[in-house]
């Protein structure tokens, strides 16, 4: 199974959904469910390479318009160089309707691959799903199966996860755990969300050369910037920006760059292309040390950041600047689905030239968004500088009076109070005492919960009741619940019972994971991590039920 | 002391003399002056040491130290007494200047810095001006007004007049007329010269004040003051004293006016433009300012009278309309603000004049009188007003 093929099919599906959804409303977020499942078809005789079957199934309200024959034809045409086998359960079957009114399809890909290659492909697919789920928050992406005897399943996209609407049916998940590990942050409470600032879209001019290659139309680029984590709860805590991550999304909210793909966009090798780091007294250097095995959403471009003004205190919190660049076509979707899919690839091929051509525009738009996102950080830095600058003045003034006094009782009392033997030690203790009071203030006095900070560019997703609940640990109402992720530990040995199951919504609910009982992201790396047997059984039971139901066909739907 | 007698006949000053008598009578009948705040050097030093000690104690307890300042510029902390003017109420609201807040940490440090400088000045019995303080570290202080505000805050916090902090303000005022004195350093000053004398920077140190003046005329603007000098006003209406603060008066000019009143009980009059700004300047001399209300007893002269230019003079003297200036929006706001101040209620004639101005919607500078004749001010207007009691 080639990861590329799977991802291209997924792209095709999402483009189709977006196209159909755009006919109703361009601004509505996509809704649906998508599954990728990988099974070894001959588990007992592990031939090398082994034979794997990847099942892609999807269900969405717009699915009903998808004509299977045409869809399959389209998929086959875009995977013309693909060596594996592509199958569809029934070429004449119409889109099945489940009880929730959602239509569902499935498609299978069969390949022969060596296990290490398959493992690598799985990581790529997982990252692609994760990246896509960030901007399609109402689509649930399930990824599971069995590889080398290890059962795994992950779901990206959790109900009630805080979301902001960006533009044109694209949203953004704002729980910070997608971008940063909790352990990175220190012991104190932090806000669990990021607060993206949406910049103004800019119209990119397409150079003639690119236009002649078929890239027609009007391109827009819209930036969104945020700092992670949010430090509103501790505005006095020193923090420094240690990294910048750039995420590139193309039309339909699809990742522009394939995970693990060699970077085609050389513009970003120039540290100053996107942003004037000097404005904030920062230096940037490219960081290519990004591992696919990380559970976080991996950026397309990453920079190390450091301040060239002064060294930061050891206990400074680190923050990451997140930059989302959304590239889209102004005019909407081409008539043909395959054409729309083809434009995605064409865009990536020529994006470097386009970005170079429009550098000042892009930089201006990005700068504005980043300026707003960094505004509070900048104010915090300035506030810290003021506090630190005041200490030596206060210390020397106090020392001047104490040392200059002719009243020995006064001098003695002052020194004794700070347990200093002489004025030199007294100075040192004064300094330490002032620093201690500042440190205490920043650590022990978290701000009370604040309402969601309003941004002219942010729109709260309607119906996001979770955002109205003020929970501890979030300066913005609605702490993000943990994602429904759980990974089966190595050696459990249980295999997937239904090789052809479709864990889709039939009764309205996917198997629920209890929040917080599963392993944390930092614990569940790849395929490792324990899981409760009860949840696993429930999951498999649901899968089994669904499988039977789908095999029965539309005429024999069980009544709930 | 004998001064050159070039002035009008004695009968000219009859009304003035009567006015002086009534002022002195009111003084005797009145509540009497409140005790002045005095502070010895050692008291100032101990006050500063107490502040430092409190800060050190807070730090030892791991508590962020802070300073408590009275809200000097809050009308809610001000009361008005006819005999004193604007002064701070005994238990006024305060504000905390915290050392651990980004908004106030800098101010906290600067207050300590200036306290330490005052400590050294008092200890060494030397003096410095506010300007000197600022120039010790202009980068640290930023601008002069920061220093000025902090010094006033410290004066209010320690409850001692500024002069006891050994900080002098740079004088900008001028004085001329029948007056002589000896400055602290022994310099003899005679203000009867043809050119004016700068108001000294150490009013407290002046001794051997001597004058025969029948009145003291406070002139708002330097231009008017120079005009009077050029017209030889001090000799024509001798014996008299004229003084100007060149606009909003500095502390030393106010202290000198106060000292002249306290020493000689002279009738004191103001000559200001007939506009809200001039009226406000006059009120500063008479009743004090919001910012310096904590030192009202040392600065205010409630017996000051408004001589001119009165808004009612505009019509009475038939001042040409084209010399008048429309009141701006800012003027209107200032006029409304003055009319609401507590002291206006006990000055019905002043209130009436301000209402005339508000109705006219016009203002007039003293210079408008030159359109009648170039020396109208010194030859006709002022002599008539002074001779016939044309003050309110």
TrEMBL record, chain A:
Span list, region Disordered: 442-491, 510-535
Q: Which InterPro entries does the UniProt record give?
A: TopoVIB-like (IPR028040)
Q: Where is the composition biased (Polar residues)?
A: 514-523
What's an example GO BP annotation here? Answer: reciprocal meiotic recombination
Residue spans with biased composition (Acidic residues)?
459-468
What's the protein called, per UniProt? Type 2 DNA topoisomerase 6 subunit B-like isoform X2
Which organism does this sequence originate in? Phascolarctos cinereus
Gene name, Swiss-Prot/TrEMBL: CUNH11orf80
UniProtKB/TrEMBL annotation, chain B:
Q: Where is the active site?
A: 135 (o-(5'-phospho-dna)-tyrosine intermediate)
Residue stretches making up the Topoisomerase 6 subunit A/Spo11 TOPRIM domain: 215-386
GO cellular component term of the entry, any: chromosome, telomeric region
Annotated Spo11/DNA topoisomerase VI subunit A N-terminal domain residues:
106-167
Q: Which residues form the Meiosis-specific protein Spo11 domain?
A: 2-38
- The entry's keywords: DNA-binding, Isomerase, Magnesium, Meiosis, Metal-binding, Nucleus, Topoisomerase
Which EC class is this protein assigned? isomerase
What cofactor requirement does the entry state? Mg(2+)
Instruction: Report the EC number(s), separated by commas if there are several.
Output: 5.6.2.2
Q: Name one GO biological process term.
A: synaptonemal complex assembly
Reaction catalysed by this enzyme? ATP-dependent breakage, passage and rejoining of double-stranded DNA
Q: Which domain of life is it from?
A: Eukaryota
User: Entry's Gene3D superfamilies?
Assistant: 3.40.1360.10, Winged helix-like DNA-binding domain superfamily/Winged helix DNA-binding domain (1.10.10.10)
Q: Does the keyword Iron apply?
A: no
Give the subcellular location: Nucleus
Q: What is its main location?
A: nucleus
Keyword Hydrolase annotated: no
Family membership: Belongs to the TOP6A family.
What interactions and quaternary structure are annotated? Heterotetramer of SPO11 and 2 TOP6BL chains. Interacts with TOP6BL.
**Main function:** Component of a topoisomerase 6 complex specifically required for meiotic recombination. Together with TOP6BL, mediates DNA cleavage that forms the double-strand breaks (DSB) that initiate meiotic recombination. The complex promotes relaxation of negative and positive supercoiled DNA and DNA decatenation through cleavage and ligation cycles. Essential for the phosphorylation of SMC3, HORMAD1 and HORMAD2.
**What is this protein's name?**
Meiotic recombination protein SPO11
Which species is this record about? Phascolarctos cinereus (Koala)
